[in-house]
Known about the structure:
Number of strands: 2
Low-confidence stretches: none
Helix content: 40-55%
Largest sheet: 2 strands, antiparallel
Strand content: 5-15%
Distance between the termini: 41 Å
Number of helices: 7
Structural class: mainly alpha
Oligomer: single chain
Amino acid sequence: xxxxxxxxxxxxxxxxxxxxxxxxxxxxxxxxxxxxxxxxxxxxxxxxxxxxxxxxxxxxxxxxxxxxxxxxxxxxxxxxxxxxxxxxxxxxxxxxxxxxxxxxxxxxxxxxxxxxxxxxxxxxxxxxxxxxxxxxxxxxxxxxxxxxxxxxxxxxxxxxxxx
Length: 163
């Protein structure tokens, strides 16, 4: 079936990828995490974000990855750090203090379909990718850098293949 309208294409893409990646049925079994996870030292995870932490996270991001809805790349932020530094510190301070009015926009993302092959003409010939805001990427990296030294105590060696 050939679809030409923008709305029809969006509905077809949603239906295809919802079936492919949709949520599984709810589980009947509940886990008691207190008995599964050993207590460990989590000191420092809830400290305010430091300028060095934020800058280190920015330096670790790939420079020329596709931008998200904000259209900013890590390369841009690195080049303009002297100008934008205080703005980023203010944003991260607000995130730390949970004063996130307006931060709901960070949850927005661009979804785009990347062709898997040269003659892609069906939905199964595409791979969806999600492009998020640069602030969200930096925030995620800062948190992951805080967690990284502690993961060995939280996750068993035979369970950490993708960490």
